[in-house]
Write a structure and sequence with these properties.
Elements lengths: L2 H21 L21 E5 L4 H12 L3 E6 L2 H13 L4 E5 L5 H15 L4 E4 L5 E2 L7 H29 L3 E6 L14 H21 L4 E8 L6 H4 L1 E2 L3 E3 L4 E2 L2 H13 L4 E4 L1 H12 L1 H11 L5 E5 L2 H4 L18 E2 L4 H7 L1 H22 L1
Parallel strand pairs: 1-2, 1-4, 2-3, 4-6, 5-8, 6-7, 7-11, 10-13
Antiparallel strand pairs: 9-12
Helix pairs in contact: 2-8, 4-5, 5-6, 9-10
Keywords: Membrane, Oxidoreductase, Transmembrane, Transmembrane helix
Family: Belongs to the short-chain dehydrogenases/reductases (SDR) family.
Protein name: Oxidoreductase
């Protein structure tokens, strides 16, 4: 088939989809919840940006193990090529796209590849992200703009493409945006990173309301990860003299991948990975001044190791970072799972357990009187 014929077919399909949208309203399959019914993972085509390391890499491997077809995107083509070969050897259907999500044309190329290879996609995960360690007044405007190109505009480009795709085809799909605990609450040292995630959170909430109002068949989820054991700090652009890291309670990237894939099958508004993410959100809302003081004391020493930093030269802000590493070199209490994610997946059982515990304590209190 020639390129002109393919282009004609695309236009015909597009016009047919628009006519179908005009002739009918979308029907929600579960009127009791008002939520869309999503496909099982093993029936889905999933797009993952930032798939060459960390959360994206773990999510790709986990999704492949569950039978999903994958479209993987990142700037590190060598890592993507090796990952694709690895997953294909295990029987997965995978295609990769070298792409910089800070460039709209590259994001369009991801969607085009999904359409040409699998006939579209069912879940789009906006995961790609970069960070900067340094006090705000030390960081160059150029570096800040570059970070926002990836963290915010990359999400905007992916969101618009995903929503238009689901709207045109008429079948419900999932859009999953990766936020941060620092998208709910400002911070020190990553003070230029936090606003990029605040923007993602505001964008996600706003576009969700517009999609609901227009009855567009899309479930939009915002993931709020706490501190995660990935090469995040190693990839960071740093203005610090010491090596960036995470310290304290740290969660595995598997917990974030678990939340992502759960949201791909079950419409969720928000999912917090790690109780610290939810706690910081609540503290900042209820006790803002206390939270300021707490973070001023607590945050700085948890952001770096006692060794020299070389991150300014080796960061992934302007070039691909090293790939195929799920974990970082963080120092702290690295958990094996996130109980908060487990509870989010089973809210009724969690509520029942909480009520039961409350009844037990009340009963004991009455007996002791």
């Amino acid at each position: 088939m020639s390129s002109k014929e393919r282009e004609y077919d695309k236009k015909v399909l597009h016009l047919e989809s628009l006519k179908e949208l005009k002739d009918r309203k979308f029907q929600k399959l579960d009127d009791s919840t008002g939520k869309w019914t999503l496909k099982e993972i093993n029936e889905q085509v999933i797009v993952i940006t930032g798939a060459s390391s960390g959360i994206g890499l773990v999510t790709a491997r986990m999704a492949a193990s569950k039978g999903a077809k994958l479209v993987l995107a990142a700037r590190n083509e060598n890592a993507l090529e090796k990952l694709t070969a690895e997953l294909k050897e295990q029987g997965a259907s995978v295609v990769y796209v070298k792409a910089d999500v800070g460039k709209e044309q590259d994001v369009k190329k991801i969607a085009e590849t999904a359409q040409e290879t699998f006939g579209g996609f069912d879940t789009w995960v906006n995961n790609a992200g970069v960070t900067i360690y340094g006090y705000a007044m030390d960081v160059s405007i150029e570096d800040m703009k570059r970070m926002h190109d990836t963290n915010y505009w990359g999400v905007v480009y992916g969101t618009r493409i995903a929503i238009n795709h689901f709207k045109e085809r008429g079948n419900a799909g999932a859009l999953i945006n990766i936020g941060s605990l620092f998208g709910d609450r400002g911070t020190l040292i990553q003070s230029t990173y936090a606003p990029s995630k605040f923007a993602v959170h505001g964008w996600t909430e706003s576009i969700r309301m517009e999609a609901e109002k227009e009855q567009i068949p899309v479930s939009i989820t915002l993931i709020h990860p706490g501190r995660i054991d990935t090469p995040y700090a190693e990839h960071a652009r740093s203005y610090l003299d010491k090596q960036p890291t995470h310290k304290g309670m740290i969660y595995p990237p598997d917990a974030v991948a678990e939340a992502i894939l759960y949201a791909a099958e079950n419409p969720m508004r928000d999912m917090y990975v790690g109780s610290q993410a939810k706690l910081l959100n609540l503290l900042g809302t209820l006790l803002p001044r206390f939270t300021d003081k707490l973070m001023e004391k607590w945050i700085p020493p948890t952001q770096y190791k006692d060794q020299p930093s070389n991150n300014r030269e080796n960061s992934n802000l302007y070039q691909p970072g090293y790939g195929l590493h799920e974990r970082g070199t963080n120092q702290g209490w690295i958990r094996s799972r996130s109980m908060y994610v487990k509870m989010s997946k089973h809210p009724i059982l969690t509520a029942a357990a909480a009520v039961s515990i409350g009844i037990i304590f009340l009963t004991k209190g009455k007996k002791s009187k």
